[in-house]
Amino acid sequence: MSQSFDEISAQLKRRHRKSTRLKWLSMGALGLAGLFLVLFFADMLGKGLPAFQQAQVRVEIDYNEDATRMGRAALDPEVSRLVSRTFERLIPGMLRDDPELLGTTETRWVLANAQVDQYLKGHTHRLNAAQQATVDRLAEEGNVALKFNTTFFTSGDSKMAEASGILAAALGTVMTLLVTLAIAFPIGVMTAVYLEEFAPDNRLTQIIEININNLAAIPSILFGLLGLAIFISFFGVPRSSPLVGGMTLALMTLPVIIIATRTALRSVPDSIRHAAFGVGCSRWQVVRDHVLPLAMPGIMTGSIIGLAQAMGETAPLIIVGMVAFIPDVSATFTEAATVLPAQIFTWAGEPDKAFVEKTAGGILVLLAILIFLNATAVVLRKKFERRW
Q1: Distance CA 115, CA 132 (A)
Q2: Mean pLDDT, the chain, as a whole number?
């Protein structure tokens, strides 16, 4: 039985109402996600930006005989309580390295301790009333100030918040990613080329493809367990080293590179292959001289995104021991090292409140690097993209 015009109109109105509701729900979800993102960045900026400033105090250093044994003896007792112990420990070494300093005086800006830093920034601190009065007096005299925190970028980890930095972790990250790239990129690209261009379509290759897709979806901590069992326990690779960290991240990055490379290879039209075969090229020559060069922008984009994902991983590196206390930069790929995510994880667990801004500052640095890597991937894709 045919429907009347009124019934059809009512159905259309219901459909339009449902469509409108779905539209507003989608816009609401998008707005909510944007709000959370804005709140996240606002919170990180509010907590992290103070990490790029550090309190310094201008002191007069008296290089006397007592200072050769105890650095604090070179400073005014009232001011020495405000100076970081990291600087006080340097004074005896300075006198040993340069004996001519003995008997001289020097005025210079030095690192203040974390409590002075927190007091000047208006955060919770442990200074007593007398110390606060001293800081206020020195500030009025221009002898205490917040300056750009070069220590944050030029030093490694430290048990004292004012002396902690990301240099060792940043270089450890670079070394780890170099190992990851050296292993994952050639193996991933060659695997993808074989599966896409040479392998027959049979049950074995189908099983391999299914497992590659499954490996790209499993939790990253399982790769850490695999690295611990194979690389450390079986092969004896040094624990906590960039070598074992890079090998573990290479396992995790391989599926991403393989999938991205296969997608890039499929984007090359078959007409390119047919034309190359038509002039007498072998299958390998077709792949090497024609298909790979055209697919390389997509391969590079996928590889950069895979490395960016690996750079932000913490769980697998914790399993292989890359959360060690590393105050100095590692000189080789087999020495103990840490990476930025693990360093941030370590700072987040410190009881001293001064490490809160260090944690947020490290997150800002890591986010900036990740955004840069992803932006580079987008630029490369847009610059070398070809439409067939």
Answers
A1: 10
A2: 88
Closest to 373 (Cα-Cα) out of 227, 180, 153: 180
Report pLDDT digits (tens) over 320-361: 988 878 888 888 899 989 999 999 988 988 888 889 899 999
Distance CA 293, CA 343 (A): 39
Q: CA-to-CA distance for 68 and 43, rounded, in angstroms?
A: 45
Q: What residue type is 55 in one-letter code?
A: A
User: Residue 301 and residue 316: Cα distance in Å, rounded?
Assistant: 24
Burial class (CB in 10 A: 0-12, 13-18, 19+), 135: buried
Q: How far apart are CA 180 and CA 15, in angstroms?
A: 52
Total-model pTM: 0.85
Asked if pLDDT for residue 386 goes beyond 80, the answer is: no
DSSP string, 74-136: GS-HHHHTTB-HHHHTHHHHHHHH-GGGTT-EEEEEEEBPHHHHHHHTT------HHHHHHHH
Q: Residue 212 — very low, low, confident or very high, per pLDDT cuts 50/70/90?
A: confident
